[in-house]
């Protein structure tokens, strides 16, 4: 279950963080890795308190952490995925919800740092890949929750292709469809795309081959119906990359255990 602000509440975007902004409650269900994963992981279910509003930091991942209050952290990619699904389920039921990333009442683009990152395994070339049965190039990456290495996944190369399948433990796409996003719009007029290409660039802080996993939402796309929403999962930039467009979503609670 998920609880959001009522539609009549004040609609303020990119507001400074306050404890009272943590108005959302999610029951994150237990999850397991996809059956085809080479390494399997499990994550128990847990309760999450989060903010439906984001705070614009206009800075890199590391500097954005300093904008968090004690006992809060950045949302993880898996938490963002579950929240996105809850918003879309509400839309299918005819309910309207506010969320800065996945559902707004007017034209917008919101980009957030998540606490999830991807790291090239030590001693492994960042451009080394395997080819699956569909001809997709796949890259081994270690999953980061904050600074902690919590697992390993195989990420498909993708140049803005629609996402076809997910690893629910980590909130990372496991398969894409090599077509344009316009060809994959759901009946709700929404689709989610992935940008991931290998980079031989070290993060300026960790000194390792790390990239952030960024999420964004955008509406009122050129040439599209005003209800069309494009959601992006972007894993192309190191966490030390700074952009004026970036925001964060504060959440409360410890990082979930990965088993």
Task: Itemize the secondary structure elements and their pairings.
Layout (H helix, E strand, L loop, with lengths): L1 E2 L20 E5 L2 E2 L9 E2 L2 E5 L4 E2 L4 H5 L6 E3 L2 H16 L16 E11 L10 E2 L5 E9 L2 E9 L1 E10 L4 E5 L13 E7 L13 E10 L9 E6 L11 E3 L1 E3 L7
Parallel strand pairs: 8-17, 14-16
Antiparallel strand pairs: 1-2, 2-5, 3-4, 5-18, 6-17, 7-18, 8-10, 8-15, 9-10, 10-11, 12-13, 12-14, 15-16
Kindly describe this structure.
This protein is mostly beta strands and 259 residues long. The protein has helices at residues 61-65, 77-92, and strands spanning 2-3, 24-28, 31-32, 42-43, 46-50, 55-56, 72-74, 109-119, 130-131, 137-145, 148-156, 158-167, 172-176, 190-196, 210-219, 229-234, 246-248, 250-252. It has one domain. Strands 6, 8, 9, 10, 11, 12, 13, 14, 15, 16 and 17 form an 11-stranded mixed sheet that branches. Strands 1-2-5-18-7 form a 5-stranded antiparallel sheet, with helices on one face. It has a two-stranded antiparallel sheet with strand order 3-4. The relative contact order is 0.22. Residues 1-17 have low confidence and may be disordered.
């Amino acid at each position: 279950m998920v609880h959001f602000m009522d539609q009549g509440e004040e609609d303020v975007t990119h507001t400074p963080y306050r404890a009272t902004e943590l108005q959302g409650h999610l029951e994150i269900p237990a999850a397991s890795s996809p059956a085809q994963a080479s390494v399997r992981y499990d994550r128990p279910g847990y309760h999450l308190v989060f903010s439906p509003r984001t705070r614009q930091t206009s800075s890199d991942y590391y500097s954005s952490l300093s904008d968090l209050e004690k006992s809060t952290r950045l949302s993880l990619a898996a938490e963002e995925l579950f929240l996105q699904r809850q918003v879309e389920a509400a839309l299918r039921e005819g309910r309207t919800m506010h969320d800065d990333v996945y559902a707004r009442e007017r034209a917008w683009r919101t980009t957030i740092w998540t606490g999830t990152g991807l790291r090239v395994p030590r001693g492994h070339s960042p451009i080394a890949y395997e080819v699956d049965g569909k001809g997709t190039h796949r890259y081994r990456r270690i999953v980061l929750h904050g600074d902690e290495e919590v697992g390993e996944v195989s990420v498909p190369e993708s140049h803005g292709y629609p996402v076809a399948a997910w690893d629910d433990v980590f909130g990372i796409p496991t398969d894409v469809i090599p077509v344009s996003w316009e060809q994959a719009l759901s009946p709700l007029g929404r689709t989610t795309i992935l940008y991931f290409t290998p980079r031989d660039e070290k993060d300026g802080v960790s000194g390792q081959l790390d990239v952030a996993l960024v999420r964004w939402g955008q509406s009122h796309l050129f040439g599209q119906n005003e209800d069309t929403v494009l959601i992006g999962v972007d894993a192309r930039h190191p966490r030390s990359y700074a952009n004026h467009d970036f925001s964060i979503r504060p959440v409360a609670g410890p990082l979930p255990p990965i088993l």
